[in-house]
Design brief:
alpha/beta; Rossmann fold; 9 helices; 43% helix; elongated; disordered C terminus
């Protein structure tokens, strides 16, 4: 059983943040979790590194924090549509590091955040804050940019604006995808959604080889699914051939997937990187929000590293 007790939602008051907060509320409602809304203002003295000016802006910082506190309260009042009572937090400090620190302090089980990356303008851009958090956090992250397809309906007046009907889980039969599958199954059960497990064969050799590999992969995927899960949600197994990120993005668009769940792959613990990886490209190009989940051991080591 997946336990989500604490959700951290960093906001910058943009439409992306409103969307991310909608997701945080829905997940909190389903899992009976608390939500912490956080707004971080970069320290002004960092922008004005000149002797006397530093002192001026150091004195101004508390006023900025008061202003941010008022704004975050206003944001919560305007956009809270469920029965949750979020904790509102305002901080002055380095944005990326402050988000990670608060995630540790709140023992967050999930971070939901929007990103201002515009892949149609710059294919290498995801959003510096989001990218940093994805690299260094020890917990799963739900990332939202401006997608073509979105499971939040902003015009919906119901208590829960999130309508999650189709979940796509990207499987590579590794330990990374094992932990992520746990999240996908739990979400599919909570939302009574259809869950598709997709594995992409990147280097098949001929039609016969594809058939053999497909049969093997489906058998392995079936082994990873607990028998009781079939009674909780509809599960489909799918194998495709081609470049992994291309097939994932294509299928998500074709099927109007509402959410993608993926395991994070890092080169090593010291430098968990997403650049050039399947995960990073799906985050850039996908048509819906993505939850990324690090391997439990890797996540634990990352947490220890941040604490140190």
């Amino acid at each position: 059983m997946l336990t989500v007790r604490s959700i951290l939602c960093p906001v910058d008051f943009s439409d992306f943040s409103v969307r991310a907060y909608d997701y945080a509320q829905s997940l909190a409602d389903h899992y009976h979790a608390s939500v912490s809304l956080l707004h971080v203002i970069p320290p002004l003295e960092a922008q004005y590194p000149y002797g006397g000016i530093n002192n001026i802006y150091t004195r101004v910082s508390p006023r900025l924090e008061d202003y941010a506190a008022d704004e975050i309260k206003r944001f919560a009042a305007e956009h809270t549509h469920t029965g949750i009572k979020p904790t509102v937090l305002a901080r002055v400090g380095p944005v990326r590091e402050t988000i990670l620190q608060l995630a540790l302090e709140k023992k967050a089980d999930l971070i939901t955040m929007g990103t201002h990356g515009h892949p149609e303008v710059n294919p290498g851009l995801l959003g510096s804050v989001t990218e940093y958090v994805l690299r260094h956090t020890a917990c799963p992250v739900l990332t939202v940019r401006k997608p073509k397809h979105d499971f939040v309906n902003p015009e919906d007046k119901e208590r829960d604006k999130v309508h999650l009907k189709k979940i796509l889980f990207c499987s590579d039969l590794s330990l990374f995808s094992e932990r992520a599958l746990h999240y996908a199954l739990s979400l599919a059960t909570e939302y009574k959604a259809e869950l598709t497990l997709l594995h992409v064969l990147e280097h098949p050799h001929g039609e016969k080889d594809i058939e053999v590999q497909t049969a093997h992969v489906k058998t392995e995927m079936e082994k990873a699914i607990p028998k009781e899960a079939y009674g909780c949600c509809t599960i489909k197994l799918l194998v495709r051939a081609g470049k992994a990120y291309e097939q994932i993005v294509k299928y998500a668009s074709e099927s109007e997937t509402d959410l993608i769940v993926m395991g994070i792959h890092g080169r090593n613990v010291v430098d968990l990187t997403l650049f050039g990886s399947t995960t990073h490209r799906v985050l850039q190009l996908g048509s819906c929000p993505v939850i990324t989940v690090a391997l439990e051991k890797l996540a634990g080591e990352l947490a220890e590293r941040k604490i140190a």
